[in-house]
What we know:
Blueprint: E1 4-7, E2 12-15, H1 29-42, H2 46-59, H3 64-76, H4 80-93, H5 100-111, H6 115-127, H7 133-154, E3 162-163, E4 173-179, E5 185-191, E6 200-207, E7 210-211, E8 215-216, E9 227-232, E10 238-243, E11 254-261, E12 264-265, E13 269-270, E14 281-286, E15 292-297, E16 307-312, E17 323-324, E18 335-340, E19 346-351, E20 361-366, E21 377-378, E22 392-394, E23 400-405, E24 415-420, E25 430-439, E26 449-454, E27 460-465, E28 472-478, E29 481-488, E30 495-501, E31 511-517, E32 525-527, H8 545-557, E33 562-568, H9 575-595, E34 603-607, H10 620-626, E35 628-635
Parallel strand pairs: 25-31, 33-34
Antiparallel strand pairs: 1-2, 3-24, 4-5, 5-6, 6-7, 6-8, 9-10, 10-11, 11-12, 11-13, 14-15, 15-16, 16-17, 18-19, 19-20, 20-21, 22-23, 23-24, 25-28, 26-27, 26-29, 29-30, 32-35, 33-35
Helix pairs in contact: 1-2, 2-3, 3-4, 4-5, 5-6, 6-7
Amino acid sequence: MRTFYYCTLLIIFLFPVRSVLAQADKNSKADRLFEKAEQSYGHRDYLQAMKQVREVLKEDPDYLDAFLLLGDMYYDLKQPVEAIAAYTRAVAIDSASFPPVYYIMANLQFELERFPDAKKNYITYLTYRPKSQVEIQKAERNIRLCDVRSELMKHPVPFNPVNLGPKINTEGFEYINSVSMDEEQMLFTRKGISPGENERFFSSRKFAGEWTLALEMEPPVNSQGNQGALCLSPDGMSLFMTCCSRRDSYGSCDLYVSHRRGNSWSEPQNLGPHINSTAWDSQPCLAADGRTLFFVSTRKGGFGGSDIYKSILQPDGSWSAPENLGDSINTSANEMAPFIHQDGRTLYFSSAGHPGMGGADLFVSRMNSAGNFSKPVNLGYPVNTKNDEINLVINPGGDAAYISSAKEGGFGNTDIYRFELPKEARPAPVSYVKGKVFDNNDKHPLAAGFELIDMQSGKTVVNSSSDAVNGEFILSLPVDKDYALNVSCSGYLFYSMNFSVQKNSDRSNPLQLDVPMQPLQVGEKVVLHNIFFKTDKFDLEPDSKAELDKLLAFLNKNPGMKIEISGHTDNVGTELHNIELSQNRANSVFSYLVANGIDKSRLTYKGYGKSMPVDTNDTPEGRAKNRRTEFKVMAK
């Protein structure tokens, strides 16, 4: 009896395919021809063996073993369609003579994505009660996957990937890493095809709607060692990366960060032992809040393989102990390449453990108000295929995605493509604000800290900073929200404002914001734009707290400073009423500061009513500007 060597998805099994059947006449011509065919097959003379099998079938068209042998040969020659046809003829002759053939056919059909046929043959095989628990488990698992994959293929999602062209892609491997907030810069990893060549970081910028020739990033971002998985922070000020050969690493690969000054990047710094372990730590992605870092690790204590973790940047600049995202995201297999969108709650990642089309598939999960992620949803077929899909980056607008894939017709091994993201997989829409911070007197650029607060929740949604060389900044803004913005810089009065971002905000025309910072000098005034009162009332509204706490921190940082808090109204109402109202509003701010530890001797307050307008009282907009709370520096 000959043997059949069959490789299932992951494990190689040894099967005796041909059972020796009792032939009516062992000395028939068909038998003699078949013995010769077996001998030729044993010598791997497939051409002669196939010729002899056809001669057998001329003599006996229902010669079962001839069809089984023919199936074996087609399998050896990597012709699965022909192998399945031969095995199908065999079971049509005698369905019960050799049950393992159903398992063999099912595996071949599974690989060819003929899922209904594969499921049918797996089920048939199990009815014969096989003894191998490995085969039983594999068949049961693949029956479930047949259902999943059949359903995905029945409902394909729109997918029309466009190759980014030869200025980005080469004959080597390109892996998408990051796209800037304005979608004007792309960062990716490239690996050539020469033996031993290391991965390197490349950058391209968009000019007149087209990507320019990608250039290798300069040292110290690129080093002599192996590195990859680069992440540009949403504000464009930091690069998080994976390095695998630096002397200060804790494990096989560690996470590092480099900071931008103008057009230069600092020497990458290891994120430290809270983030990095003795295992493999890689694939960072920083959330739009500037404080939450997602990454992948094979450290002990996970669910198996590589898991996705997150860590929070603390006020003192350290990182919190990494938190595993839990079994809603992680499985016993590998989870990789997390990408958290700028909306702050939509997570995309690659998984080999959640049911999908095969290999590693791309999934999306959304975080609820309690901070928990939903059950992952497969991005669908043909975005996902039987091959590995790993690298995915969603553009800030949320309507398009960049993917790394080895598709036919590309420039090399793995190319970068852009495609329109199916609507069901899109994140919440976001816009952005960009601008420049500068000294109000001589206009020189400043490095300032930003705090963006969601006025409804009172939570800080973004911590960021402007560039020290040119003062430029860019901030991500989920739409349909009201924001308070606080800007601070050492030696300057803090700056505050509030604004709304509408759902139909035009990303091609983002909010442009210049921030003039006033040097800290006696007599200078600051309008507290984010102090709120109800009409004709002087009780502080809850969403005033963020601004008041900013003023508290400012006074604590400058312990010698004394200020006057002033209240102002428009010209509606009597002069006496307006004086009284503005006095009470100034007193509310005074009382809050005193209650929170500021010495009374440093504070005075006064209501000026309508006597000091800053705009006309003839329009609603002008009157709104005149209704304000200010403070003036009396001593520093």
